[in-house]
Amino acid sequence: MALADKLRKICLSLGKNNKPTYAVIAIASVKGICRPMFTMMDKTEKPETKKYTALREGLTELIAIPVYWASGELAGFCSKFITRNIKKEDFIPQKIKALMKDGIKNEKVENALKDAAESVIQTKNKVTNNLRLAGVCTAALLIIPAVCSAAIKPVVHKIIKPQQTNDEKPVMPEKRLQIAPRPKMVNFGANPYKSAYSRLQTGLKIGGIL
Questions:
Q1: DSSP code per residue over 124-163
Q2: What is the pTM of this model?
């Protein structure tokens, strides 16, 4: 029973004082540890790919944790200005206010005042937690992606320098197109017998009798 009572008190305390910032920071911490570990355990990927992916995932959650905390605290600070106008008198019933005007103070009035004080605290906590939830959602949707896109890539390239793998083939220089020499044109229209006959006649004239 002692352990059960302690657990009940812890749960009640967390239920009353829990903040959305705690939940998202816990999730980011688990993701920052487990996701890189599972990535490095993958045997189907190349070592360089696993290192790059694991480092990128770890840096993303490392950036997310302080951004979540800062956005939650900023929302909590802003909630003080929003909830400062919430007063106990707003939660006191009109009947109790009438009794208080008449100067009557009994158990019913005291219980109403206690309930009103608790209502003020609960309302302020609800407003603060809702603003903190809106703050961490804004951080998750806008701030963290913007910071990660601007910071992670340069950091990763400084830690892991890209190397040329053996699979990459060197680029060959462009070859110039060589034009083959133009073949000589053969005049198939000439009569070979006529030219031979002309040579024969010439020889006869030179060596024959005039």
A1: HHHHHHHHHHHHHHHIIIIIHHHHHHHHHHHHHHHHS---
A2: 0.65
